[in-house]
Amino acid sequence: MKSSVKAVLVTVSLAVVLLVVALVFVLINQNQAAAPETGTADGPQVVRENSHVLDDGGEGAVTVVEFLDFECEACGAFYPLVEDLRGKFDGEITYVIRYFPLPGHLNSKNAAIAAEAAAQQGRLEDMYHRLFETQSQWGEAQESRADLFRGFAEELGLDMAAFDDAVADPATAERVQFDLDEGEQLGVSSTPSFFIDGEPVVLETWTDLEDSIEAAVNGAE
Predict the structure, then answer these.
(1) Which of the 8 DSSP states describes residue 143?
(2) Scanning 13, 24, 126, 159, which has its CA 20 to 30 A from the CA of 41?
(3) Where are the domains of the chain?
(4) Contact 125, 54 (CB under 8 A)
(5) Pairing label, strands 62-68, 93-99
(6) Alpha helix stretches (DSSP H) within the chain
(7) Angle at 51 between CA 48 and CA 53, to 5 degrees
(8) pLDDT digits (tens, 9 = 90+) for 157-179
């Protein structure tokens, strides 16, 4: 009886070992099969090929991305600071802006569309400056200011037929919406939101953005 019991125990133990080995083998193969799919998935990206670059620092530069709303008062408050940092770190950073018009601002999308229409004529930065410098004139308005933005385009000397066509083209609004949708996928919920080399910047004090850029430029961990 003792020999029979030992034989049964050995058989059971061997069966358990084989079962565990088989289970591990299956899990390894499943993970190996899933890896390529995960690696090639086209998830949200902080910077796209069509993202608008205001400053190109060249190879090795730190990439700073701002998701902005031209009507946002906080973005307007950060605008002078951003311009100072662009000058201070000129040649060391690549500065990218992406649209993130908040639904609570009636003219934020109109402003972004005007900026995108100007971008199609290579004049994005000029419109970017004009929109922020005049924000107090049209921000928080409860009616469309699209005509005012068109006036800015005229003042900048843009081809107005091309500008009007771009504003009316659904593809222009879709381009703005693309940035907004991807920003939401990246966790953006307010403006301005900044990313440095793909990582979100936590803003708790007025100097956090500059400190974060400084650390990235100097290679700090």
Answers:
(1) S
(2) 24
(3) 1-41, 52-217
(4) yes
(5) parallel
(6) 2-40, 73-88, 108-119, 124-133, 135-138, 146-155, 160-168, 170-185, 208-217
(7) 125
(8) 999 999 999 999 999 999 999 99
Those residues whose C-beta lies under 8 Å from the C-beta of residue 47, and which sit 6 or more positions away, are 63, 65, 96, 198
Dump pLDDT digits (tens) for 61-79.
999 999 999 999 999 999 9
Residues 6+ apart with CB under 8 A from 144: 106, 107, 110
What is the CATH number assigned to the segment(s) 52-217? 3.40.30.10
Q: How far is CA 209 from CA 17, 72, 166, 175, 179, in A?
A: 56, 18, 34, 27, 21
For residue 195, list its beta bridge partners.
65, 200
pLDDT tens readout for residues 98-150? 999 999 999 999 999 999 999 999 999 999 999 999 999 999 999 999 999 99
Is the confidence at residue 212, as pLDDT, over 90? yes
Provide the whole-model pTM.
0.80
Cβ atoms of residues 60 and 92 within 8 Å: no
Neighbouring-strand partners of residue 68? 99
